[in-house]
Amino acid sequence: MPFPLIADLNGVIARRYGMISNEVNPNKTVRNVFIIDDKGVVRAIFVYPMNVGRCIPEILRTVEALQIADRTGNSLPANWVQGNPEILPSPQTYEELKKRIQENEKNRNGFSWYLSFTNSDDNKEK
How far apart are CA 126 and CA 123, in angstroms? Predict the structure, then answer.
């Protein structure tokens, strides 16, 4: 199998990871999705009640967004999907700030020096 399976007969692991909510039902799990990176760091957790299915497109969108954000250092706004603009990090020096203002005026890619946008294709070498 291409994913780990864990036997948890007494529910200890499920309780530690918040998969059983005693307030909802002490004997049934909720549907959890953990996105764990290659370093073993939990990057996102989705929790769905038993009577609601998972949203696979949203899970895949989140994985893709995490990969792009890691690669570029950019932030991704709400409802971001592949191909939409990304938010550039804030300038760290006064010189970077002046350069950002010039880029915004030239390219019309932001509202001000602190909110500017780019596309992943523009940052492949970053």
Answer: 5
Tokens linked to 38:
């290659």
pTM: 0.72
> Which helix (H) or strand (E) is 59 found in, with range?
helix 56-72
Q: Within its chain, how far is the Cα of 1 from the centroid?
A: 26
**Pairwise CA distance, residues 94 & 100, whole Å:** 10
Domain count within the chain = 2
Residue 7 lies in a domain: no
Phi, psi of 19 (to 5 degrees): -90, -10
Question: Cα–Cα distance between 118 and 102 in angstroms, integer?
Answer: 15
- What pLDDT, on the 0 to 100 scale, is given for residue 3? 66
Residues paired with residue 75 on neighbouring β-strands, in sequence order: 87
Q: Following DSSP, what letter does each residue of 14-51 receive, concatenated?
A: HHHTT-B-TTT-TTSB-EEEEEE-TTS-EEEEEEE-TT
In this model, does residue 53 exceed pLDDT 70?
yes
Q: Which domain holds residue 105?
A: 86-123
pLDDT of residue 76: 93
